[in-house]
Structure formats: C-alpha cells, structure tokens
Amino acid sequence: LTRKDLAGKTVLVTAGPTREPIDPVRFISNPSSGKMGYALARAAEYRGGDVVLVSGPTALPDPANVKTVRVRTAGEMALAVFDHMGDADIIIKSAAVGDYRAVETAAHKIKKTADQLVLTLIKNEDILKSLGERKTHQILVGFAAETRDLKENAREKLVRKNLDMIVGNLVGHPASGFGSDTNRVTLFFRDGSCEPLAEMDKDAVAHIILDRVRERCL
Ligand code: PMT
User: Fold this and answer.
1) Is the complex ipTM more than 0.90?
2) What is the domain partition of the chain in residue ranges?
3) Core-most of 53, 74, 203, 214, by most CB within 10 Å?
4) Is residue 176 within 6 Å of ligand 1 at its C-beta?
5) What is the pLDDT of residues 64-90, one digit of tens each?
6) How far apart are CA 149 and CA 185, in angstroms?
C-alpha cells in the first residue's frame, strides 16, 4: 500500500555525524551511522514528499529520488540547512551534530613528540535552536540522544529549542541509538504528552514519526 500523504510537502532531514578536524588526518566525531535519518528520508519520499537530506559522512548510498547534500562539519551542516529551510514544510533533525570544534586546526599532521596534548574546543552553533528561532511556518522535529533522564532532558530541549515534537532516544544500548538497525524511542509533544514506542526497525520508527507529524503537528 502506497500512502502519498506527504504529497506537496517539502521535508528537510538531517542525518549522520559531523566531523570536526584537528589536523589533516584527525577529527572529532561520534558513532552515528546515518541509519535513522536515511530511514526518515526514504519514508518521507515513499509517502510522496519532496525530500532534501543533509548528511554528514556516512557509508550509506544516497536514497533514490532524494536531493542529498553531503557535508562534513557542523558549520557546513548549518549552512546547508539554513539554505534549504525556507522551502521546507517539515524539518527533522536526526543528525548527531558535534557540539564543539577545535579552536585551531593544524595545517599539517600533529607529530607525537609531546607526552600530553591539550586541545582547546569552542562551541558550535546549535542548528536546531537557530531553526526554532528563525522558523516561520515549518514543523520542527528534533531528536534528543540521552544516556539518562530521557524525559526531563527531552522535554527541556522541546521547549528551549521551540520544537513541535522531539524524539527521545536512550542511547548506549546495542539495539537502540547509534549504529543499530533497530531503535527504541519516546515521542514528546508540545501539550506535555508522550508516547513510548516499542523496539522496532528504524524504518518503522520513521513512519510513526511521520504519522505523528501528520496527525498532531500539520
Ligand atoms: O545515525 P544512527 O546510527 O542511526 O543513530 C541515530 C541517532 C542516535 C544519531 C539519532 O536517533 C539521534 O538521537 N540523533 C540526535 C543526536 C544528537 O545530537 O542529540 P543531542 O541531544 O545532542 O541534540 C539534540 C538535537 O539538537 C538534535 O536534533 C541535534 O540534531 C540538534 N543539534 C545539536 C547540536 C548542534 N550543534 N546542533 C543541532 O542541531
């Protein structure tokens, strides 16, 4: 059964990790595989949406019929997202964006002569928070990857970042979060309610997220 309930809607999805360079051969990153975000992009395309996927470095192929923009750093992701936000009706930020980057990137490979190496990091722009400040008509869905206090942290981000919905993702479990084919999430809504989902494939999670956007946010 093909549902075309997102026909005429432009959906902007972010996926994957970012890489913040230290020198030409090293970077700071995280274990995001992109699977959750790519599942969302494929599901939105299947349901008739015009989909733009802004992706950090992943091993996944570009989804069919999806405009895929590949970026590396959080700064590049921010530029690509702000570039496409005006056309979007729905924005879903599943990317694991680096919170900090190195103040200085060495022009050449750092030699391992010193016993200790101190890196100074500076905060990256919070893309989701900026989207929450700038949004006009867009439905804004964030993710919250947490290792504890999921409910409190997710609710705090939902309000502080001016989101319509947030997907709370308890990470650090082999069948949920980073890298796995399955995920276990709780959806949090503006009215204070929440919906815990069972463990299921990321494709199934993606469709339920889009169902709730349709039913509760559009
Ligand atoms: O890619 P997979 O291997 O499939 O793993 C999926 C996932 C675990 C990465 C995904 O389900 C998930 O939880 N993504 C959010 C990861 C994250 O960065 O969470 P956070 O709680 O640190 O950030 C909260 C929200 O702010 C996120 O929507 C994030 O995209 C956004 N953010 C964060 C920092 C920043 N500088 N800019 C942002 O936009």
Assistant:
1) yes
2) 10-217
3) 53
4) no
5) 999 999 999 999 999 999 999 999 999
6) 13
What is the three-class DSSP state of 79?
A: helix
Give the Å distance between the CA of 97 and the centre of ligand 1: 6
Q: Is 93 in the pocket of ligand 1 (CB under 6 A)?
A: yes
- Judge whether 157 is annotated as a binding position: yes
Q: Is 30 a catalytic residue?
A: yes
Question: Which residues make Cβ contacts (< 8 Å) with residue 68, sequence separation at least 6?
Answer: 41, 52, 53, 55, 62
Cβ pair 22, 13 in contact under 8 A: no
Which superfamily, per CATH, for 10-217? Answer: CoaB-like (3.40.50.10300)
| pTM recorded for the entire structure | 0.97
Pick the catalytic residue: 30, 162, 169, 183?
Answer: 30
One-letter amino acid identity for 195?
A: E
Phi and psi dihedrals of 132, rounded to 5? Answer: -65, -35
